[in-house]
Design a protein that fits this description.
single chain; mainly beta; globular; Jelly Rolls
Length: about 110
């Protein structure tokens, strides 16, 4: 039997992670989260995660520092952070982006380690 579940998530009521991300729809293999109006400042702490991330910039500008490379992110840009890659983000202007992670970032504490 195929999975026929349907989910709808209203971001106004979405749970938030410790870093300010809003968790959106989540399936068994992939989940979405929203980084909303992130403010400029010092780069986030360097991290390696046990999931792959793809993202899309809605507003603002940031730099993705990924394995020694610097990638400029602006509205309309999308990006990939491979599983296990060392990376950080530096927000340059108030920044809003949507990311999808596989497997879901919030499961088993993957997002907070």
């Amino acid at each position: 039997m195929s999975d026929t579940s349907v989910k709808k998530v209203d971001s106004a009521y979405s749970p938030k992670g410790q870093q300010g991300q809003k968790y959106l729809a989540s399936g068994k293999s992939v989940s979405m989260r929203l980084w909303e109006n992130e403010q400029p400042g010092e780069p986030k702490e360097q991290a390696t995660r046990e999931y792959e991330t793809v993202g899309y910039v809605i507003t603002g500008r940031a730099e993705l520092h990924l394995e020694g490379q610097v990638v400029s992110l602006e509205p309309g840009n999308s990006w990939v952070v491979p599983k296990g890659a060392s990376h950080t983000y530096k927000i340059l202007e108030p920044f809003t982006a949507v990311e999808a992670t596989s497997p879901p970032a919030q499961v088993h504490g993957r997002d907070e380690n």
